[in-house]
Design brief:
globular, 7-stranded parallel β-sheet, 664 residues, 25 helices, alpha/beta
C-alpha cells in the first residue's frame, strides 16, 4: 500500500495495532521509493525514545550489506558541547572556524567511511547517531549539531523530532520553506510521521505562542544595567512590548479564576508593530550575545535571551490570519519572591547609575510582577501542517490510534483529494485477548471521589484471580492518588504494599523511569502487581510491555481534556467549521489516550491479556464509535459485562491458566 502511494506521489494515513511491525514496514516501503528516485526520506517522531526502532532497523540493513545512510538529529541544547548554548563563532569554540575544521578533517564525508572494513575491504558506516556526532565533534572541536545538519545533505534517511519538519522556528530551512535547496531538482523528499495522532497537539502548540509581562519585566531590568550601547536600544524594545501587554490588558478585565479573555471584537495584535520590534531585536541580539560572551556572563536563563525568543515566535504567529486564531489577554503567574530579590539586588548594585536606578524604580511602579500576557491560540493547525506536507512527494502518517480516521485527516492537514487511508486489524489470535466494558462506575470529575471505593474493589477483585503485572491507567494524577488510597485499604496482610502498588510520579527522571520499568521484568508469582499510571503519560504511550510485563490493563475512564477556556475555543471553532465541536475538542482526543493505553497489552502473537474499560460512558454509542473495529466481532455492545471479575476469571480459565479465588 505505502509503496504504491509513494510511487504515485500520494499521501497515506495508516492505522495498525501495536506490535505488528508497522514501523519497519513503512520504513522499508518509503526508503525503497526514495532510493529509487534519488530522494531523501525524513522520518519524524514526537519523542526521541520512539526513534530506537528506526535506528535498529537501519543498523540491520547495514549489517546485511545494504548501504542506507541514516543520521539522527537531536536538539541544539542536547548536542551542545559548549558550557553555554550560544551559537556564534565569537561565542563558541566549536562554532569558530567550523568550515575550516570540516575541510581539514574531511568532514562530514569521513563519518560515512569509519566503520570496520567489510568483505570488500571498504568500511562504510551507514548509521550515525547523536552520540557519534558528539564524539567526533569533541575530537575535532566542531559543533556536533551543525555536523549532523551537514551530514543530512548526503544521508538517505534523516531521523528526528517533529520540530525539524513542522516547527516554523526550528524546521530545517535548507530543506523546507522559502529558503529550501533540494538536493536533486525534481526529487522531492518523502516523509513518515510516526505516532501521527500526536501531531495535532504539537501543531497547535507551534502556533499558540505567548508574550509574558514578567519576562519583559526581567529583561528591561537586565537591559537597564547593561554597560553597552545595545542595552539602551534593547531596553526600548522591552519597554515597548511591556507597555503593549499592559495597555492591551487594560482593555479587558481578566477575573482571578479565568485563564484569559478574548480581545474585544474587531481588535487584533498589530502585525506591523510586532514586525518592527522583531526586526530591531534581531539586529541587536547577536551584538548582545557577543558582548556577554566576551565578559563571560552568558547564562542559560538570561532574561534578555528568553524575551527575544518569545518575541520572535510571537511575531511569526501574529502574521497569520483565519478564524482558527484567537487573540487573547491571559493571566500568568504573579510576582514571585525571586522577582523581588532580583529587583532589590539590582537597585543595590553600585554599577548602576542614578539614572538607571530611577528607570528601574519607575518601571517597577508601572507594573512589575503584573501577571498578564498576550497569547495567540490556534485551534486548528491543519492549514500550516498541510502546507508543509505539500512540500513532500509523498507523506505517510502511521499510528495505532487514528480512529476516526476522517478526524485525523482533517486536523493534520492531509488533503482529502491526495490522501488514501488504510485501517488494519490485529493479526494476533483473538482468543489471546479480551476487551471488557464495565459500566458500574462513573469517573466524570464530579463522580470521582464517590466512585473511588467501588472502583478500587472491582480492580482488586479482578486482579486477584491471577498473579502478574496489571496496568491501571487514570485520567489524572489526583484521581490516581485517591484510588491508590482505597486500594491500600483492601490489600490482604500477605500482600506487601510496596510490591503490589507501583505508582507513577510526576516529573520522573530518565533513571527513575528506567528503574520503574525494570521492576516489571520480574512479575510477582504470589500476588498481583498494580502499576498505577496516567493516560497520555510516559508509561501509556510509546512503551512496550511484551510477554509477562503486562497481562492486563484497567483503563479508568475516557481521559477527556479538562474543560477550560482553550478547549472551549476549540469546541466553538470546530462546531462552526465541522458541526461537532464536542467530538473534536474532547471526545476524540480523550479516546485516543484510551486506545493508546489499551495498546500496551498485546504486543506479540504469543502475548495473552485483557483490557477493561472502566466507566459507564464506554457503553455510550458516541464513545463506542471511536473503538477500533478489531476490538469486537459484530458491535461494541458485546464487550459489556455485568461482573468483570467473573468475566476475567473465565477468560483465564479458557486459556488454561490456573486461577484462584482470593476475593471471598
Amino acid at each position: 500500500f505505502l509503496a504504491r502511494q509513494a510511487d504515485e506521489g500520494r499521501h497515506a494515513l495508516v492505522e495498525a495495532p501495536t506490535g505488528v511491525g508497522k514501523t519497519a514496514a513503512a520504513l522499508y516501503a518509503m526508503t525503497q521509493d526514495a532510493l529509487q528516485a534519488g530522494a531523501q526520506l525524513f522520518y519524524v517522531t514526537p519523542k526521541n525514545t520512539q526513534q530506537a526502532l528506526v535506528v535498529e532497523t537501519a543498523q540491520r540493513w547495514q549489517d546485511a550489506g545494504h548501504e542506507v545512510r541514516t543520521v539522527t538529529l537531536r536538539s541544539k541544547a542536547k548536542m551542545c558541547l559548549n558550557d553555554v548554548l550560544a551559537c556564534h563563532p565569537d561565542l563558541c569554540p566549536f562554532a569558530r572556524d567550523y568550515e575550516t575544521k570540516l575541510e581539514q578533517n574531511d568532514l562530514p564525508q569521513r563519518l560515512w567511511q569509519e566503520a570496520e572494513p567489510g568483505p570488500d575491504g571498504v568500511g562504510v558506516e551507514c548509521v550515525v547517531t547523536p552520540e557519534r556526532l558528539q564524539q567526533v565533534g569533541s575530537e575535532v572541536q566542531a559543533c556536533p549539531f551543525e555536523l549532523g545538519l551537514d551530514l543530512t545533505e548526503t544521508a538517505d534517511i534523516v531521523l528526528g523530532d517533529y520540530n525539524y519538519v513542522f516547527d516554523p522556528q526550528v524546521a530545517l530551512k535548507r530543506y523546507f520553506g522559502a529558503e529550501a535547496e533540494p538536493r536533486n531538482l525534481g526529487a522531492k523528499p518523502r516523509l513518515i510521521v510516526d505516532e501521527a495522532h500526536a501531531l495535532y497537539d504539537r501543531g497547535c502548540d507551534y502556533y499558540s505562542p505567548a508574550l509574558w509581562q514578567g519576562t519583559f519585566d526581567r529583561a528591561r531590568y537586565a537591559a537597564a544595567r547593561l554597560d553597552h550601547r545595545a542595552g539602551e536600544q534593547m531596553l526600548e524594545i522591552h519597554e515597548a512590548v511591556f507597555q503593549e501587554i499592559q495597555s492591551t490588558a487594560a482593555l479587558v478585565e481578566v477575573p482571578q479564576h479565568e485563564d484569559g479573555v478574548i480581545l474585544p471584537e474587531g481588535r487584533r495584535f498589530d502585525k506591523q508593530r510586532f514586525a518592527s520590534w522583531r526586526e530591531a531585536m534581531e539586529e541587536l541580539f547577536v551584538e548582545y550575545l557577543v558582548y556577554k560572551r566576551m565578559r563571560q556572563e552568558l547564562s542559560a536563563d538570561d532574561p534578555m535571551v528568553e524575551a527575544a525568543y518569545q518575541l520572535f515566535r510571537f511575531e511569526h504567529a501574529v502574521q497569520l490570519d483565519g478564524p482558527e486564531f484567537t487573540h487573547l489577554v491571559v493571566r500568568g503567574e504573579p510576582e514571585t519572591a525571586e522577582d523581588v530579590r532580583l529587583f532589590s539586588g539590582l537597585v543595590g548594585q553600585k554599577a548602576l547609575s542614578p539614572a538607571a536606578t530611577q528607570r528601574l524604580r519607575d518601571a517597577r511602579d508601572r507594573g512589575v510582577g503584573s501577571p498578564f500576557g498576550l497569547r495567540i491560540h490556534c485551534a486548528d493547525p491543519a492549514a500550516q501542517l498541510g502546507q508543509r506536507l505539500g512540500e513532500f512527494h509523498s507523506a505517510a502518517g502511521v499510528s495505532a490510534t487514528l480512529t476516526p480516521i476522517h478526524y485525523y485527516r482533517r486536523v493534520l492537514g492531509f488533503p482529502s483529494r491526495r490522501t488514501d487511508t488504510l485501517e488494519l486489524t490485529s493479526p494476533f489470535p483473538p482468543e489471546n485477548r479480551r476487551i471488557f466494558v464495565d459500566r458500574r462506575v462513573g469517573t466524570t470529575y464530579k463522580q470521582r471521589r464517590a466512585s473511588a471505593p467501588k472502583l478500587a474493589r472491582i480492580i482488586r477483585e479482578t486482579a486477584a484471580w491471577k498473579p502478574g503485572n496489571y496496568l491501571v491507567a487514570f485520567p489524572s494524577y489526583a484521581y490516581m492518588r485517591v484510588v491508590a488510597g482505597e486500594l491500600e485499604k483492601l490489600l490482604p496482610p500477605t500482600w506487601p504494599r510496596d510490591e503490589v502498588l507501583l505508582m507513577q510520579r510526576q516529573r520522573m527522571s530518565i533513571s527513575e523511569r528506567e528503574a520503574f520499568l525494570a521492576r516489571l521484568d520480574n512479575p510477582p508469582t504470589e500476588w498481583p502487581r498494580l502499576v498505577l499510571i496516567v493516560q497520555g503519560g510516559i508509561f501509556s504511550e510509546g512503551v512496550d510491555y511484551p510477554g509477562e510485563r503486562c497481562i492486563g490493563c484497567f483503563v479508568v475512564g475516557p481521559a477527556l481534556p479538562q474543560v477550560g477556556l482553550f478547549q472551549e475555543l476549540k469546541k466553538a471553532y470546530f462546531e462552526e467549521q465541522d458541526g461537532d465541536g464536542f467530538a473534536y475538542a474532547y471526545l476524540f482526543p480523550g479516546m485516543t489516550k484510551v486506545i493508546q493505553t489499551a495498546g500496551r497489552v498485546i504486543r506479540t502473537e504469543s502475548d495473552t491479556g485483557f483490557i477493561a474499560l472502566m466507566d459507564w460512558r464506554f457503553g455510550n454509542e458516541k464513545y463506542q464509535s471511536s473503538f477500533p473495529r478489531w476490538w469486537y466481532r459484530e458491535q461494541p455492545a458485546e464487550l459489556i459485562v455485568r461482573d468483570l471479575a467473573s468475566a476475567v476469571a473465565d477468560f483465564w480459565s479458557t486459556l488454561g491458566h490456573r486461577v484462584r479465588d482470593e476475593t471471598h
